[in-house]
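Run log, item B.
One chain of 361 residues. Sequence copied directly from the ordering sheet:
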Amino acid sequence: MSAWLSLANRAANTGRDDASLAARPTLTVPARIFKGLGRAASRMMSVALPLSDPPDGRGGTAGRVTEIADFGSNPGGLRMLVYAPPRTPRAGAPLIVVLHGCRQGAESFAASAGWIDVARTLGVPLVLPEQVSANNRNRCFNWYRPGDVRRGRGEAMSIRQMVRTATTRFGSNRRRVYIVGLSAGGAMAAAMLASYPAVFAAGAVVAGMPVGSANTSAMALLRMHRGEPLQTRIGLVAALRASTPTRGTRPWPRLSIWQGERDRTVNPANAELLAAQWSGVHGFEAEPTTDAVAAPGLRHRSWVKGGVAAVELWTIADMAHGFPIDAREPGGGRPGPWVVDAKIAGARRIAAFWGLEPRRS
């Protein structure tokens, strides 16, 4: 075990540019990896949203984040929060699921990363699953535990039950459900897309992990910091397909992948592996259809079929571990713990990749 402790200590002491990591950081990884290293030292600040908006008529409160306690058996023991935009979502509107990272709160992350603003602009509700310390003392989603990511079990089943409840309450289009996550939440988002491909039209993973890359805490830490240099494209695709032995004829969900190249918590090689995994399952060759520099330090690759990108990969040269925002733009997000001003509004770009457009009067 001493080798793992040494690896964790070296990673925790590596220099980072994200100011949110300055005060005694712990890695944004599953808490069981750090058993014996002490308790988490910080708590996330929650964001106060307006308290005077009227009910939306469909089980939420307009313009606010509220909790829904009765959403199923909840085998993963998660909290279900929802955000209902100020204007009542019209019947058949999309639904977005947002998964926070370790040591973050669901509401504060959604607000800082720009998802509350996106939901308000689009007129769509958000489902904000929240991890609890009883499951993981750093409040990480347990993305690597088979009992929490397999179809019909644990945290994955809890999130599936939240989606079912929200689509009913808000009258959402069941074929326009999307999921996004950061770090451990990103890895869980990928696992949800793999385990429930018929539930989600598309997703996004920010600083996350390939599906099937780990099944123990020790392996999770190793793969996060080193990737899997010997993993083949065939093996990656096989691991993804194994998550859903029977899935019918519907296409796999589309995927947007984001990664900072100065990330010292999740090795950027994992984004490349994730892109290889999902482009492979969509039937593409390894080389992307397009490969362009969108702006200095910002590379965009995509795998396109029929004029539509099935997979895209954004890499940001100067970004450390976190979710990218553009604080210069109104509604582009605001810096916070593991929310980084990278001069690009990730939430808006992801929504555009999904094909979501602002609501017209």
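Observations after the first pass:
- The two ends are 60 Å apart (CA to CA).
- The domain at 2-354 is CATH 3.40.50.1820 (Rossmann fold).
Flagged for discussion on Thursday.
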